[in-house]
Structures are given as structure tokens and as C-alpha cells.
Amino acid sequence: MSYPEECTKIKCMQDELEKLACTPNPVGPTGFNPAAKLPYGLEVHHVRQAMESFVDFLGFLNRQLYNKGLPRIESMLMPANFSSIVGEFMKVNIPVFLKNNLFEITLFPHN
Asked: What is the pLDDT of residues 55-77, one digit of tens each?
């Protein structure tokens, strides 16, 4: 195999791996402590649902970036920025699955 053919093959393999990486692994149900003590009526399954929602969002975002020829979001951002996005996403989505606003409960406990 000639050098240009080998480079083309490697590029195709890298592209295929990048495409596969755009679909994140699902959230594993065994990765949660079922005995965790959580406040305000929050249960482990609420956290899991919010994490599944984030993984779906991440997959959607990365597939869109891939289709535009751009790198995955976790490759573009510094780790602290990506971590911040995860935290903010969870902060907003956990109450969606809890069906209460945890932050209103915290700020206005007698309301």
C-alpha cells in the first residue's frame, strides 16, 4: 500500500471513530447508590433521569457538530468549562424530573 493510500485509510478510520464517539454510552443503572440520602424528596431515579437527558443532549449536540465538520464539544472546551455545562444542565433538569422546584424550596422553605 502506498503512503497516500495508507493516509487515506487512516483518515477514514479516524473519521469513523469520531463519528462513533458522537453517540455517547448510555447511563448505566448500576452506577448509582440506591441507598443515597438525598434532600427535598429527591430520589436516585430523578438524578439518573437528568443524567440520561444530558447524555441525550450531548449526543444530539455532538452529531450536529460532526455533521458540520467540527470537533465534539468535549474536545473543544477546557475541562472546567465542560464540567460547568454538565453542572448547569443538571441543576436545571433535576427539578424537571422531581416535578418541584428545588431552588424555590431552598429559598422559600415556608412557601
From this structure: 999 999 999 999 999 999 999 99
